[in-house]
């Protein structure tokens, strides 16, 4: 049986890694942390923020609402308060479509 390499998922991401993922400043991430209750990164003894996969997923939802759909911060907060499960499901669909798109682009480039 051949060796199959597994994808390694990190438990915690630093602020620097998160800012690179979303291509934003750390101040914007901290601002969204203050504005949205669903964003609760852990802090170590030094006070450095450590983001979990759940925090990353919540940030994706927030960025999708604010940047892509054009919601105001108050509108995004209200939407998340009333439609949290729907927002998570929509983000899951968006993520799977983005993975499919990258796979198809990779196949096209290999032809």
What does this structure look like?
It comes from Sphingobacterium tabacisoli. It holds the Pfam family MerR_1. Keywords: DNA-binding. This is MerR family transcriptional regulator. The protein is mainly alpha-helical and about 110 residues long. About 65% of the residues lie in helices and about 5% in strands. It contains five helices and three strands. A three-stranded antiparallel β-sheet has the order 1-3-2. The mean pLDDT is about 90.
Shape: globular
Count of runs of 4 or more consecutive helical residues: 5
Mind summarizing the main beta sheet? 3 strands, antiparallel
- Low-pLDDT runs: none
What structural category do the secondary elements indicate? mainly alpha
Helix content: 55-70%
The termini sit apart by 29 Å
Report the C-alpha radius of gyration, rounded: 16 Å
Number of strands: 3
Question: What is the overall pLDDT average?
Answer: 88
The fraction of residues in strands falls at 5-15%
Output the strand order for the largest sheet: 1-3-2
**Strand-and-helix sequence, N→C?**
EHHEEHHH
